[in-house]
Amino acid sequence: MDHRPKEGPAERRARRLRLVNRERVARLKDNLTPRQRDLIIALPAIFHTTHPAMPGYAGHETPAGIANYDRERNTLAACRRISRGFEFSKRQIRRPAIEAMFIMGSGGTIAHSRDSDLDIWLCHGAHLNREEIEQLQTKARAIETFAEDLELEMHFFVFEASSFLNGENLPLSTESSGSSQRYLLLDEFYRTGLLIAGKEPMWWWQSNDDADALPQTNGLSDPKKLMINFGPLQTVPAEEFFGAAVWQLYKSIESPYKSVLKLMLMEAYASEYPNIELLSSVYKAEIESETENLNALDPYALMLRKVEEYLKRSEDHARLEVLRRCFYIKVGERLSVSARKSESWQRAMMRELVDEWGWDEKIIRHLDEHQQWDFYRAHAERRKIVSALKASYSALSGFARERSHDLHISREDLDRLGRRLYAAFERKPSKVEFITKGICPNPVENDLSIHQVKNAQGATLWAIYQGTAKPGENSSHSALKRSRSLVDAVTWTYANRLHGAATQWHVFANADEANRRDIEIVLQALDNSLGAELSAHDDNHSSGVPRARRALVFVNVGINPFSDTSYGGTSVVTQRTNAFCYGARRVNLVHQLDLVLLNSWGELFCFTYKGQSALGNCLVEFLNWQSEQLQHAIGIEVCCSSNLAGDLLSTRVGNYLNSIARSAARLKGDENFHHFTQLGRKYLHFSRTGGHSNVTIYDNTASVYQTLEELPSERNNVVVLDEHADLSPTLAKIFANHRQGFLRCFIEPRGADAYVYILDGVGRLLTMRQPLHFLQTLALQYQRFLRAVLPRCESSETPQKIEFFAVKTTNSFSFCTGFIHLFASVENQMPWFRQLFV
Question: Is this prediction's pTM over 0.85?
């Protein structure tokens, strides 16, 4: 007689779910390489022990042990293939650190491929302290790194099940949805989660009808000891749909096909509110009906069916087609290509679906080639995807506004997600649009043509064409891109990955201007500066106001710096090698600057500046993207592709931009900054006041002196004169000796005259010229005058301290005979009259 307790509904349900779980885990492992499979098999053992030879080892003090751990038959062999010296410890773990380990998502489903990532929930016990949790997280990060070497992308989420049950959220990150969704995430977990080791979800034992009740079991004295509880799930509150929609839109930036599926599922759920038929409940109901076809239980197939039914009811045939295309590309089975081995279950299942949809070989072949789509096909696909995403988002946000004012997403998470969406989809002037991102990974063109053309207003434009399009033939081609500058056109090409190592460029420009070498130099500079940054995902960067992460300035690309000068288009030999004021004719060789800037939100810009103010405007734009704490400002990289004075230009421009940026970084809160430099026969005045920058061009030195006299008095003025400018070297020395709160008078003998400079306590300069008879007499006159007048001009009761200096220059010795002996006499009689050497 069989004395075993009779199997009740809870035991039968759990047994069936356990069986399906085992079969799906087997499917997951079959889809991995041998080394990846060994890691998945060994993963529970790695966390159950602290073996120094295994990945992630961080010391014996790291918490270890998994509840109810029962290693598989092939676990030891897999562990030893990873590390030959592995042995299981015989030490008993009285209180395991980990309650359960799950893989959730596409693992073991039709949508999983070798390129898919694995999201792993590592649920620790409530008894762990903060330090122990951090140790577990450190171990998990190390295992993620180990998996990267196996070409397996893994993401661990270390948390306590009760925190999820109580409504606490994981921090928002690239992989974690933070506070944007909880019930929808739980719905996905219950239908896709695979138990790898540890306690079974209590949800397995509960019925759909009464998910709040504890499972009624036969023969289990305390079933809770064998289960982990993430909470019941019977519906999704209306408040959660908006945050979840925003999250999926964010995910669509990198994975548009998967996001379309999930957004449409949420839209289908919202259409059924409040009586939502959750897929997790459908999944459990199919399990209870003892469906033996594992394909019919596939979570992604269930999702596809539900959304298809919703779109058919809505008669939305356009989005139904988009849904199926997204599903096909997400699965990744290329049906137009013969299978190398026997047909997999995924391939057979996908073939049944496309037959049901009535697709012909042309459609299948087109989708199978999506990784090699050219720009036009990628652009067309992106329009369809974005249209479908916008439609779902519009429906879900409207639903949320009608149903609830509580969005169930924290303001911080909503702001961060909003910033990322804004960066990805918002169009702005000078912003480089990413069109192929997430659509096709390899849209490289074998041939690209770039033409210098004129628009209706006579302005120069650069047009990029697919293939080899010669002048006169481009009318039959549609330009891929039209840009104001060559750098902008090439940057757009680089960002959208249209250029590859084998791409041939065909350049059609005015004589002696752009050529293939210019393009290659620009592409190389972009790759060196932005290559790693464009593919990086850093969640910390996207907080707050967008700031510059990388800045690259291109000088005169596609422009001969001597083309519009009297030098006849070629450089000349000269000792005056200042690129801003070149040669005897004082020519400014900087005609155009292109600032390529990548900001902290992942936005890429290309700003183009031309003319005399190009240098200053470029600097203003760069500083506007800097942090308010300019001490942390990034440097500017400068590149010039020109054979004519290229090194001279890049060095001069780089020194100018970076030196001013560093000077601005040293400013105090009560200071203004002014920098004067010469451009040709004009002068550029860059100023920064209260965090705002401005540029002014002056025609002559008289305007510069007038500006120095009229500087604002509200703050202290820090003035720097460029050493290469045709301004008196005495002025640079005087401003270098400015001291806030002190009035300083400088007297410079020049032959029979003296130049008198009075620099007040906030950095304003008054310049005068008058006959010089006796230096001592002139100094005493000014001393008496200033000491009499200054107290009347001061609002403060304490007058400024007055200091006097005699300026000694090379000119002083040649034009003022006996100056040294004269000054020595003056210095003995007037100790307050000091020397300043220039």
Answer: no
